Amino acid sequence: MNDQIIAREFIELVKKPPIAVVFLNRPEALNALSVGLMRNLAETLEELDKDDNIGVIVLSGKGRAFAAGADIKEMSGANEDDFISQDRLGNWDRLRSIKKPVIAAVHGFALGGGCELALICDIIIASEDAQFGQPEILIGVMPGAGGTQRLARAVGKYRAMEIALTGRRITAQEAHALLGEPECC
Ligand code: HXC
Questions:
Q1: pLDDT in tens, 83-117
Q2: Of 142, 149, 145, the residue nearest 167 (C-alpha)
Q3: Pairing of the two strands 102-106 and 123-126
Q4: What are the backbone dihedrals phi and psi of residue 34, each rounded to the nearest 5 degrees, phi first?
Q5: Is 32 among the catalytic positions?
Q6: Pairing of strands 65-67, 11-16
Q7: pTM of structure
Q8: Domain-wise residue ranges, the chain
């Protein structure tokens, strides 16, 4: 069967049953996770979750990043009412509810919400140029989409604190070393 390519505003979906590849598609903004992109992503993953022809979802980014985090420009123009009415965290809850396995295929930057998005996935495959980090502290906020908890579970409390409190980026190689070798057959 030919690949089916479906373009949404901020998402490109390639279906090759039983695999679906979902690309974040705002390369000009390093796939910054705007409200519109997050809605597109949640809708797309929910649809794939219900699709009997799809068994696994791969999540990747177009351009030179996986995702450089929440959309800082959009956030800086938002007030409290916007945050409530746009239900930003609700979209993250929708992603967490996906039952099919989701594999993050990470290249380039996976920062802030981008790192949290990778951490929500069930497996992370990182290319050698991948850079992970929680740089929120550098703009005066903390990781707000579960990153503090998931990162601590992945690399332990002290490494997670160091990464979140310094905002430094870690390479794919360092991330791999922090996680240790997978238990394998
Ligand atoms: C909006 C962003 C963006 C972001 C990059 N861009 N990151 N726009 N939100 N998070 C835009 C830039 O403004 C620029 O647009 C274009 O993408 C290319 O970025 P450059 O900075 O020119 O690229 P480069 O010099 O290579 O630097 C890449 C970078 C840097 C190191 C990733 O862009 C950066 O530090 N970005 C912010 C990363 C960050 O702080 N993430 C955490 C966000 S807070 P123009 O139009 O100027 O060309 C967060 C909270 C999550 O994620 C909470 C969840 C609820």
A1: 888 888 899 999 999 999 999 999 999 999 999 99
A2: 142
A3: parallel
A4: -70, 165
A5: no
A6: unpaired
A7: 0.96
A8: 4-179
